[in-house]
Amino acid sequence: MSIWGNVSFQNSASFTMEQMTFFYDFSFLIILLILVFVVYMMVYLVFESLIKCYDLDNQTMESFWTVLPLVILIFLAFPSIRILYLMDEMKNPIMTCKVLGHQWFWSYEYSDFSSFEFDSYMVYSLMRLLEVDNCFVIPLGLKVRLLVSSVDVLHSWTVPAFGVKVDSVPGRLNQLNFTVNRLGVYFGQCSEICGVNHSFMPIMVEVVLNQGFSVWVENSS
Predict the structure, then answer these.
(1) Measured by CB atoms within 10 angstroms of the end CB, which terminus of the chain is less buried, N or C?
(2) Could you report the per-residue pLDDT of 169-180, keeping only the tens digit for each?
(3) What is the pLDDT of residue 105?
């Protein structure tokens, strides 16, 4: 989870978030190199007392700074497109869960088993604006498909550690998939302004082992 003073991403808990973090680091390195080069050239031109004539009209240099940005954009585009396709791939999900946004709480439904559902309200505790009475439970290492909608206004189901954010739109069913590879409890928030209590509908996800998930399903049904 996010901690005070943290300026980086949360620890990745899914393959998707790991790939997004790697891409961010890769892009940041390229942008940093570009920044250093541009600053160097600006300083060089400012303090150079005599600018050589070939610096003002040089076909080779013009070709270089025309082709180089294209190459850089290609290097950035390919991993970005790959991650986008990974996020949208819905091949063979192990389980499907439904999420409905309300003003101002979430409701979850497990329809792959004996079809049970529950509501998730924020409770007052030491975990300010994060803890709920009934958390969303999923198994470790299994591909989960999430069907997300709303019964009133726009919401957005977001868990940063999973790298997922999907809009909850009335009358529309959006879907996403993710696979969590770390045990633990993860938190998120509604990320779409949905009314006066928008800040009071947190998301709490507990990732458990498969055996523990089976026991939880039996006890909750």
Answers:
(1) C
(2) 999 999 888 889
(3) 92
